Every structure is written in C-alpha cells, then in structure tokens.
Amino acid sequence: MKRLAFVLFAVVSLTFFVGTGLTIADDATVLPKGVFNTTLDAQFYFPIKERFDPDGNEEDLAQDLNGTLDSSVFPDLAAVEAGFGLPPGSANVGDTEVEFELHVQEYDFYFYYGLFPKLTIGAKVPIFKARNSVDTALNTSNATVGSNPGVPGGFAPLAFPGTTPLTENDIQNLLVSEYGFKKVKDWDDTGFGDIEIGARYQYFSNETWRLAATGALRIPTGQEDDPDDLADFAFGTGAYAALLYLHNDFLGLSDYGLEFNASFKYEYFFPDHPEVRVPDDVNQPIVPAENKERVDRKLGDLIKVDLEARYEIMEGWSASLFYRYSKNFEDDIDGDRGLAYDQLEEESDEMEQQYRIGIAYSTLPLYAQKKFPIPMAGKIYYRNRFDGENVLKSEYIGVILSIYF
C-alpha cells in the first residue's frame, strides 16, 4: 500500500512537470527518487538503397562497387597490356552491376532509475536486426580481355584464340582467391549495438525553465565492420566514447499546451586500433589482402543540435515535431607501413539533417486519478534523414512504449 501511494505521488509529480508527453525523453526531465522506468524504442526502416555522397548528392548504396574492372582494380591486367601490346588502361574484363538493398530494424531498450530527486541513472541497450539483399551481375559487352588457360597468367585479349569472357562467378572467385574477400552475396545478422550507461542531473527547474545535463559512456559492444566482407553492416563503431548532453526545456507557454526543448550534444571518441584494409583510393573498395593492417585510429568527434516542440492536443494526447543537425568531424588514422592512410580519412566526416513527427499518448493523468491501473506512455513517429554527407539516406517508423514502476 505504501509503495502504491509512493508511485502515485511520483506519477503526479511527473505529470505536473512534463504534461502528457513521454517523461524520459531526450529532454531535461528526471525521475522522482525510487521510481523505475523501462522504455522500448522500436525503429522499422524502409528499405535503404541510397546514400548521400560527400557533396550531399544521392547515390546508389553499392556505387563504389560498380565500374569497369580494369588494371586499376586487377593489377594483373597491366601485364596483359604489356604482353600483347595493348594501350595502357585498355584491358578490362567487363563492368560490374551491383545493387544493395539494406533492411534494418533497431530495438533500443532504455532502463532508468530515480537515484535522487534530481538525479536519474540509466542505460541504453540497442539490438539490431539487419539484412542486405544483394544483386550482382557482370556485363561483358565492352570487355576487351577474357580467360585463357593456355597463356601465362590466364588472361588474354578476347580476339586471341581460345579466350572466353569471364563470368560473374569468375569475378567472385577472384575476389576470394586473390584478395581474400568473402563472396559478395546476401548478408544478414542480429546482434547488440554499442551499449550506453550514464546519468542525468537536473540542475535547475522553475515554472519557465527546466535544465539538465547528461553524462554517459558508450561501450563498443556492437559488431564492427568486417574488412573482408563488402556487403556487411556494422552495429557499432569499435571505440569507446564519452557523451555530454545539455538539455534545455522552455515551459513558458505550457498554459497553451506548448513545450520546447533544445539539446546540445558532444561525443568524444577514444582512440582505438581496428583492423582495416587501406585503399589507394577512397572510392576503390577492392583492396589487396596485403594492405590489411591494424591501424591507430581516432574517430572524429560528433556534435548534435536537437530542437523539439510538443503540443498537448487534449488530456493524455500530445503531438511533437523534432529536428536534428549533426556533424561528425574527420577521422585521424595512421599506421606503421607507409600506406595511404589519408584515403581512410577521406569521406569519414559526416553530416546529417533529419526531422521527426509524432503523436503520443500517456495514461499518467488517468493513473493519477485512479482511472487506469498502469502508468505508461506510448508514441508513434516518422523519422526522415532528408539531407546529409557520407551517410545513409534513410527513413523509418518508430514505436515507443514506456512503463513506470
């Protein structure tokens, strides 16, 4: 009975401070002491087929895998040019036609506890389910060189007797035998992303403003990019990160059902040492296995500016409009073998702009009036990354469920 009275008091307090929206949102709210919250944010992405290039233009997700397979990709073709007197750069075995279609579901589990009246501790545990549907083909209509087991090296001009065009399977086998890659084919996996643990302290609150700061540590528990798989999808960065968020809520128009939030975020990545393939050109992902190295890397720091407006439609119901601008600065990468590490740094800086629109419902007012048995809140929203550089072009539907104990 005492516990029920305490939870009722906590919910009334939460309702007073944050109205009908989700109480543990990305804002300056905190939980009352002793109250526990668990939240699931499920994100269902539309199929991803494009990305934003360094100039902000849209391009196919597999753009860098499409092109002419000449001596810049397979250096052995230069020997064919020299041996048969072909002009430099003229030998090619065809054009690749590769398409990626990425399907992603992300489930973010949040756990919060009101440790003190102004201090909430918590954790975020993301789980990814991803699948890359891959279509590959080799167009040999403009090829000049093919397979010929009767000549040294196994390649000769197509006009040379006994030479036949290469097939798609021949190219896949070359990637495996000569470069140590896995075959470019459908890929799918499920696993954890990078887990975050931290705390939020609300250092000021009155009728007009609510201010808080969040500090957290991101732990690299997510699956990293596989340097031998051209079709995989990374679930994590591979590096620890320190997070600092400043949340600022304006409540001066709450009598009109309006609340505003501005959050300023900074993420610092600690140095790490991933194993990568070092290309001679950032746009050429077919990199020899001998260029694989464990490098010294410092991921570029990240800044975000989040702006959100919420409007109380009626008791229990609210609508929201959210905007984010984020900027990832260029990575710093070095190694011991004198390879082209600057090409790994190229296109590592990222920018994105996104918006979200959503509608939320909360049972907190009804629970406070003893008209509903469970204090909970839910939200459905649409998110669109409408602009960016070096990031995926993506959109998804999100569903949030939040329960208090």
Query: What is the string of SSEs from the N terminus onward?
Result: HEEEEHEEEEHEEEEEEEEEEEHEHEEE
Uncertain ranges = 1-24
Helix content: 10-25%
Q: Roughly what is the average pLDDT, rounded to an integer?
A: 93
At the fourth level of CATH, the homologous superfamily is monomeric porin ompg
Task: Give the C-alpha Rg.
Answer: 27 Å
> What is the number of independent domains?
1
Widest sheet, order of strands:
1-5-6-10-11-12-13-17-18-20-21-23
Question: Which percent band covers the strand fraction?
Answer: over 45%
Number of strands: 23
How many individual helices? Answer: 5
The major β-sheet equals: 12 strands, antiparallel, barrel
C-alpha termini separation: 14 Å
CATH architectural group: Beta Barrel
Overall form: elongated
**CATH topology (level 3) name:** Porin
CATH class call: Mainly Beta
> Which structural class fits the helix and strand makeup?
mainly beta
Quick overview:
The protein has 405 residues and is mostly beta strands. It contains 5 helices and 23 strands.
